[in-house]
Design brief:
Blueprint: H1 2-10, H2 15-26, H3 34-47, H4 52-77, H5 85-90, H6 93-106, H7 108-114, H8 121-131, H9 136-161, H10 166-194
Helix pairs in contact: 2-4, 3-4, 3-9, 4-8, 4-9, 6-7, 6-8, 7-9
Length: 195
């Protein structure tokens, strides 16, 4: 990560374009971490306050439009997306099925809470919303709210506390992921028992 920070720091005048572009690639399931991009943006903004608005808007809009790319892939390409080996290897049918079941039961709350879960869960959420033909306006408004809360929260934490807060964020992410996994397990178990 240090090399990436140095690269972007060396091109600070174009950092916001680099970060925005990298996040758009994440929407195509290319392994670009949104969390790392937020961290780099906030760290650079703390060292170069003149670039703060550009860096924040790049990471915020990049994250938001990245979600739309995943949603549109699911909505307009649909299940055919799994015929493309690149996507089939990135997101399993099992994960999509579990998330779709969660959408059926909890709706928009799935999107709002799922926005805070890393490890590729976010893209699976947005792809599943598209595959399930979730209403576009409903998706857009829910994602706008979730993206605003998560981006502002993490950017502010990283901006003020930098690397010292990373360990706590990673622990919190692990806890959220574990809780979501347990909730999905309980939901799946109850559904199996009911049938």
């Amino acid at each position: 990560m240090e090399e990436l920070i140095q690269l972007i720091h060396a091109h600070i005048h174009h950092a916001h374009f680099i970060i925005f572009s990298a996040l758009l690639l994440a929407g195509l399931n290319i392994p670009v971490s949104e969390d790392v991009m937020i961290f780099i943006s906030a760290l650079l903004a703390s060292k170069h306050p003149d670039y703060l608005p550009h860096l924040f808007m790049a990471v915020y809009l990049g994250a938001f439009f990245s979600d739309f790319i995943s949603y549109c892939l699911g909505r307009f390409i649909g299940p055919k997306i799994f015929e493309i080996r690149f996507f089939a290897n990135m997101v399993s049918h099992e994960r999509i099925s579990k998330i779709h079941a969660y959408y059926q039961k909890y709706g928009v709350i799935t999107l709002l809470l799922g926005r805070f879960i890393p490890f590729g869960v976010r893209n699976a959420l947005f792809l599943t919303a598209g595959l399930g033909k979730m209403n576009f306006i409903k998706f857009a408004l829910s994602d706008l709210l979730a993206c605003t809360i998560s981006t502002i929260s993490f950017f502010t934490l990283y901006f003020h506390y930098g690397e010292s807060v990373i360990i706590y964020i990673q622990q919190a992410n692990s806890i959220v992921f574990a809780l979501a996994f347990i909730a999905l397990g309980v939901f799946w178990y109850r559904k199996k028992r009911a049938t």
